[in-house]
Amino acid sequence: MARQEINLGVLPNGVGGDTPRVANTKINDMTEEVYERIATVENSLSGKIEKTSVGAPDGVASLDHDGKVPSTQLPSAPAGPSSTDDLPEGSTNQYFTQPRVHSTTLAGLGALVNAAIVAGDTLLQAFAKLQGQLNVKLGKGEVAADSDKLGGQPADFYTTLMAGATATAGGVKGLVPAPAAGDQAKFLTGAGTYAAPSTTQTSWGGIAGLISDQADLKAALDAKVAIAGLGLSKKWSSGPISWSVAGILNLTHNLGFEPAIVVVKGRYKAAVNGMAIGESEFSVGILYQSAFLGVIARKPTTTTLQIQVARDGLRLSNAAGELVAVTPAQVDLVVELWA
Known about the structure:
This protein is about 20% helix and about 15% strand. It is α+β, with helices and mostly antiparallel strands and about 350 residues long. Among the domains are: about 1-5 and about 15-35; about 110-140; about 230-339, Immunoglobulin-like. Strands 3-13-5-6 form a four-stranded antiparallel sheet, with no helix packed on it. A hairpin with a 2-residue loop joins strand 7 (about 285-290) and strand 8 (about 290-295).
């Protein structure tokens, strides 16, 4: 409730002011409100402590920004052990000392299983699997428990040397005997011994007699044509060469003779004129309406040759038999020589 103003009227006799009843009623109402507010304040203060008691002796502890009592206001804790060495062990939960671990038994080891150890196994399970694997292995002088692996053979079966064959008896399989010092150039024979090869049978220098006595070898040689009798016996190829119009290409070959035949092919490196990349087309010189097109071979020697594209460029044919100009970006030249 807001403050209520009492109208005192006009001086000097209070004409127009509140009557005593109205004025007292306003006073009573405001006084009642004051008492109610005082009661509310008293109720809110009930159970509160004096501010001066916070952090004071025999008072209450203050709180830090986290709502916790600062360590400076806590009583000192009694002295305790600084490590497990200061704590006595119990009768059931005892310390794992090294002697105790070493003397721990494998009680509860369980069945011995021939299986792989996995990460999820306990130590007892791992030991059981390991012992199970060892139990099925072949021991010295024993027969293998798993005949599928070792064929059920006695242990010396796998260490016996081979026995060589004779003219009347076959050999027995086994380990290959070790060669002795000085036997490094020898081979192991079916007799189980090391022998040197016969030079009279394997060395070309050991062949005796005339070539005419070697019927099969002589027949093969007679079927060959002498190089001197061949019209063309050697060929040389340049591989792909870049070119330019009227440009001269100086080539070096290894024929040892002046070329008798020169063939120049255009090898496509772009799909044009109905030709695929890598396909080739032979080129010749052409006189076409006062234009000179094609490739000329010049100055042949036993080791060199000049190739020149004509002054008006190079033309190759299409599927319709028409001559179509090609460029160095579309076609490389390949030169082949025979002598």
